Amino acid sequence: MRPTHAFRLTVLFVAACGPARSSAPEPARCGPSVPETAQHPLAVPPSALAGEYELVQIQTQPSGGSASRGRLHLSPLDSSTKAGTAGGAVRDLSGWLEPAREDSSTEPGRLVAVLAGQRLRIGPTVSLSGAIHHLEITAVGPEGFWGWWKADRGLALTETPDSRILPDPAGYFCALRIEG
Q1: pLDDT given for residue 152 in this prediction
Q2: 41-177 maps to which CATH number?
């Protein structure tokens, strides 16, 4: 017996479920995964991270999708700087981050960068004041290093119109070596 009626197949595509993304696309070179050649950061001495990098930070909270970029420079400490840290915080490398000109989320000029072990602090100063980004390095490879970051805004809070307090900005990052 042959069917006497036909049916139509309707395909429904779900475009996205989740927070709205900004108009800036997520950089293809800096996804949340790392290359197979990457190692745990404890397997690589911090001094091996000295050099020039393109630092890309992808924000995932409180809203996702925005990216900030800059040129990161890390160099070994000179002997007088090392002597000044005796008995204080251990620092392996120091340097600066120059945010990209199109990045409106940061103030113009260089920010201080200090690497201690697998933790990189970036901010206007290395003090405990707010507006500092803490980057936790979770993987290191010949191409650079990767991990997650969280902003420490000090006493500042972000509040929504309905009086909800939002979490501090956070996300993942990659620092890709600039060959020069």
Answers
A1: 84
A2: 2.40.128
